[in-house]
Amino acid sequence: MGQPWEPDELGKTIAGVARDLLAQPTLQDTLDRIVYHAIRVVDGCEFAGILSVRNGEVQSLTASDDGVVASDRIQGELREGPCFDAALRLSEIYRLPDLAAARDRWPHYVPRALELGIRGMMSFLLYTDDARENLGALNLYSGEPNMFTPRSEHTGWLLASHAAVAFAGARRQGQLHEAITTRQDIGEAIGILMERYKITRDQAFELLKKASQDRNVKLRELARSVTETGEAPLG
């Protein structure tokens, strides 16, 4: 028999990260832990964040400090930058050991980033096999140039791969929980209206829907108000 196979230290570390991400109770907790682990395991990474571009708008989903939020905001304003490009799937990975050398590619963003004290960056597209998933980009930063090496890129890519799976799973779980809660709230509100007005289920739903449209309030929010206050949505 051969000797038992032992994973290397990086493999053990990433496996531990993957287990930790899947154990988080909420989507935001998952995102926050991705950034925490990025700073912990990727050589040269001093701060990090996750940026998403939805309907043309940049969102900072999580960030380790205000500088990351500022970088995201600037890229959104200028419509350029490595994180912005990665989130739009223009490239899966950017490794920029010295950001100053990328002025030609992002002539407006780079000077602003240097003013923030950003000297090195790496951006990784967060994606799964589901092409419909729009997860954004994991972005890693250093305050000194030439801190990001090929090993940093390899570790970052491994982390981003596991992070995308955990991110997508947590988001679907959150959407499922919200859908179940919404159905429960609507069902309970319909029951209250049926009892209050002695009407059928269909009539109660139409009453709730009309009140939602008249008040320009989402159906689930109106239903939750009915269940919490017992007040009928009339007038």
Automatic annotation (TrEMBL):
InterPro entries: ANTAR (IPR005561), GAF (IPR003018), GAF-like_dom_sf (IPR029016), GAF_ANTAR (IPR012074), WH-like_DNA-bd_sf (IPR036388). It comes from the Bacteria. It holds the Pfam family ANTAR. Keywords: Transcription, Transcription regulation. GO terms for molecular function: RNA binding. Residues 166-227 form the ANTAR domain. This is GAF domain-containing protein. It comes from Amycolatopsis sacchari.
